[in-house]
Amino acid sequence: MSIPDGWDADELARAAKLAALVRARARARAGGDGGDARIFAARAPGRVNLIGEHTDYSGLPVLPVAIDRSTIVAAAAITAAEIELANADPGWSSRRFAIERHIPAYQTGDWANYVKAAIQGVIDHFAWRGRFYPPATSVDNLRGASMAVDGRVPPAAGLSSSAALTVSTAMAFMAVNELELDGIETATMVARSEWYVGTRAGGMDQAASILGRRDHALFIEFDPIRVRAVKMPANAALVVADSREIADKSGMVRAEYNRRVVECALAARILGRALKLDGVTILGDVVRALPGWNAAQLVEQLAAAAPARLGADLKQAADILGVSQAALDAELLGQPATRIALDSNRPLEILKRARHVLSETERVIRAADVLEAGRLDEMGKLMNASHQSLADDFECSTRRLDAIVECARRGGAFGARLTGAGFGGSIVALCDVAGADAVIESIDRGYYAKLNSGAPESWRAVLHAGAGASVIDLRTG
Ligand code: NG1
Q1: By percentage, how much of the chain surpasses pLDDT 70?
Q2: In the chain, which residues have pLDDT < 50?
Q3: What is the 3-state secondary structure (H, E, C) of 188-255?
Q4: Which CATH topology does 252-353 take?
Q5: Domain range annotation of the chain
Q6: Which of 1, 96, 117, 305 has the most other CB atoms within 10 Å of its CB?
Q7: 66 phi and psi angles, rounded to 5 deg
């Protein structure tokens, strides 16, 4: 068995344990003889984003690294057209659901919705793909699977535990069904998987998890997904520290996140109209239509075209755009089942959000070059500027995130910023390998010591850029 890059001995042992679990369940199910199916294990890492925050759903670039923390899913085919699901962590209870064209979600917050999201993504993608590359893989000829999950990416910490789960599930399910896609197409397929659980996410996390490369950051562009691997300088270290403020994606954070998606889409449409560009729905469309664009100028043009904030009922925006309120509502907020609920008591911020996204895009493009050139000091400054913009214009930092970022800087980091959606979760700090201990010490003393509880050892670490997701065949019979 040849092992792809990324699997370490511990992960292989975890896969073997999951395989034993899957085999035992398959045997029990088939009355003693169902345990001989091939067993596959997919490993998908979490990610930490170095810079390029809240740009992906505007179709604008990001610069994450896949990390050396993973989720593993083992899977074997079963005869029933269903997914039988176990989790190595007894805190996450077992599930079973039918494979059907449209899989109904469990209640909001159920961990297995991420598994359903991934399976639904595979079903949708291959139904669509079959139109171009017959024969189509319809839901009726997909095999069911017994699956077992072992996730080691800390949840709700901004490190994409959810992408690690959706990616590993999709890849294991494809392996069981002998379906193959290259990395870019797999990333495109799972990019929207979180829409299933109600988050209008942009696809950075899944792309980073799939396309990750050891010792490299990834400059990822969207529509279509493209990736340039940027070598991490040998003397660079990444310290990731969890603020212990839970960024719970199923509640308030989801509402705030989706609200930002709507605000950015409105800014794009208004700017597109002001600049007489056709078919603009996201800020990326504006940027792509204007080679030589610059953020400050676009922000000025937006300010000239609309007030900085608009009413949440979209009426004012519809007037500016010359479209009906109902049509704009349906396009931006979606259909009833997965509709974005906007708090109607708060105005929508257009200018600030666009200023962050456009200035962040300039920073990301610059960051890929300075990182590649090993100019860590400059990279750190870009990260600091990113945090400031996220705090002031995107309003997704918190007092605690600001405090922990400050500790990292005081400890000698070149730069530090919140990573992921914010509203809690983790920060990432860039430092010299030799300086990582001092940064950690500063965070321990200045931040964790004041929390009065727990064990900082498990909350902060030096993380390494690791390989992307892959599948191994664990055939043992
Ligand atoms: P986190 O908070 O790490 O899940 C979220 C989105 C990303 C991206 C970032 C902000 C999900 C699953 N992912 O990341 O697509 O938009 O926020 O840059 O919501």
Answers
A1: 97
A2: 477
A3: HHHCCHHHHHCCCCCCHHHHHHHHCCCCEEEEEECCCCEEEEEECCCCEEEEEEECCCCCCCCCHHHH
A4: de novo design (two linked rop proteins) (1.20.1440)
A5: 9-232+465-473, 238-248+364-463, 252-353
A6: 117
A7: -75, 145
Q: In this structure, is the dihedral angle defined by the CA atoms of residues 401, 403, 409 and 413, taken in order, positive or negative? A: negative
C-alpha to C-alpha distance for 103 and 314, rounded to whole angstroms = 32
Q: What pLDDT does 349 receive?
A: 98
For the Cβ of 160 lying below 6 angstroms from any atom of ligand 1, the answer is yes
Write down the pTM of the prediction: 0.95
The whole-number pLDDT of residue 1 equals 62
Distance 255 CA to ligand 1 centre (A): 13
In the residue annotation, 205 being an active-site residue is answered as: yes
Q: Which atom of ligand 1 is nearest to the CA of 56?
A: 16
Summarize pLDDT for 269-296 with one digit per residue, the tens.
999 999 999 999 999 999 999 999 999 9
CATH number of 9-232+465-473: 3.30.230.10
Q: Is 285 in the pocket of ligand 1 (CB under 6 A)?
A: no
> Is 422 close to ligand 1, i.e. is its CB under 6 Å away?
no
The CATH homologous superfamily to which domain 238-248+364-463 belongs is GHMP kinase, C-terminal domain (3.30.70.890)
Q: Is the CB of 177 under 6 A from ligand 1?
A: no
**Closest-lying ligand 1 atom to the alpha carbon of residue 194:** 12
Q: Is 57 in the pocket of ligand 1 (CB under 6 A)?
A: yes
| Distance in Å, CA 281 to ligand 1 centroid | 20
Q: What is the pLDDT of residue 35?
A: 62
Atom index in ligand 1 nearest the CA of residue 62 equals 18
Residue nearest to atom 12 of ligand 1 (CA): 201
Instruction: Look at residue 108 in the predicted model and tell me its pLDDT.
Output: 87
